[in-house]
Design a protein that fits this description.
The protein is α+β, with helices and mostly antiparallel strands. 21% of the residues lie in helices and 28% in strands. Helix 1 (27-39) packs across helix 2. The chain is globular and about 60 Å long.
């Protein structure tokens, strides 16, 4: 029995999230159907992190176990031939040691893209969030730095979040502008339900001047989601990459070079 690791890209616009659901179209279901055809057996995958309705992935990581005698190219090329246009297998590798897509991961990277102009976009619809009010990305970046480190993120988790602990370790969070887009990049050991979208909602209120730069720090102390800002739309959210210890032999996304040294040391 071999364990295969895949990197997956998908457009979440027409999925009700990653995870299989009854009578709903999901990225996991499409992937498992395609892989099962190639392996001529039922294949179930485990992912690094589930994404919600409308959320995209630049590089989701999954693994599955199989006794089918196939090459890595068979899984990639054959899988893509059987996948719809909004899902693609980027690469395949054999797992090393006790690799697990979820439990072996030590950091996740997300990217939230905000189109900041008076008129929404027809061409970028479903792939970016939209804010028609001018955003001050410098204030947003300054406010975001309060979130770095280990904190209780209760004010930034969904009320329905089922995680046992609200504590998470934020490795970095950067906010910057590229033309008419304001981009939030952030990495943590793991994320709570709606955590990135709630952070984006808070930073957008700070960026428009509705709240002060100190609001992120205040919300960390309050530990009450009801006192936080709106949950930003899912459309601009991308799972950008997953970081694993070097022993597993998986390529690292260049953005993980931004991890502080005390975080990187756990991966080497």
């Amino acid at each position: 029995m071999a364990r295969i690791v895949l990197g997956i890209e998908y457009d979440g616009s027409h999925f009700t999230g990653w995870q299989c659901q009854n009578h709903q179209r999901t990225a996991q279901e499409e992937l498992e159907k395609a892989l099962s055809l190639i392996g001529n057996q039922t294949i179930k995958v485990q992912c690094a992190g589930r994404t919600d309705t409308g959320v995209h992935a630049l590089e989701q990581v999954v693994h599955f176990d199989t006794d089918a005698d196939r090459t890595l190219d068979n899984w990639v090329m054959g899988g893509n031939r059987n996948l719809p246009a909004d899902v693609r297998i980027l690469w395949a590798k054999f797992a090393i040691d006790d690799f697990h897509a979820r439990f072996s991961a030590i950091a996740r990277y997300y990217r939230y893209v905000i189109l900041n102009r008076p008129i929404n976009s027809a061409l970028q619809y479903g792939r970016v969030s939209w804010c028609y009010k001018p955003l001050d990305e410098v204030k947003m970046h300054t406010a975001a730095q309060s979130l770095i480190g280990k904190h209780d993120f209760s004010s930034f988790r969904a009320l329905s979040c089922q995680s046992v602990s609200p504590d998470r370790l934020m490795h970095f969070i950067n906010v910057f502008r590229q033309g008419d887009q304001v981009i939030i990049e952030l990495s943590a050991n793991a994320f709570l339900h709606h955590m990135v979208r709630n952070i984006a909602g808070v930073l957008m209120e700070i960026g428009t001047g509705k709240q002060s730069v100190d609001w992120t720090q205040e919300l960390l102390g309050i530990k009450d989601r009801k006192q936080g800002g709106i949950t930003a739309a899912p459309y601009g959210l991308y799972l950008g990459g997953v970081y694993y210890p070097a022993k597993y032999g998986l390529d690292k996304h260049p953005v993980f070079n931004l991890l502080p040294k005390d975080a990187r040391r756990f991966a080497h």
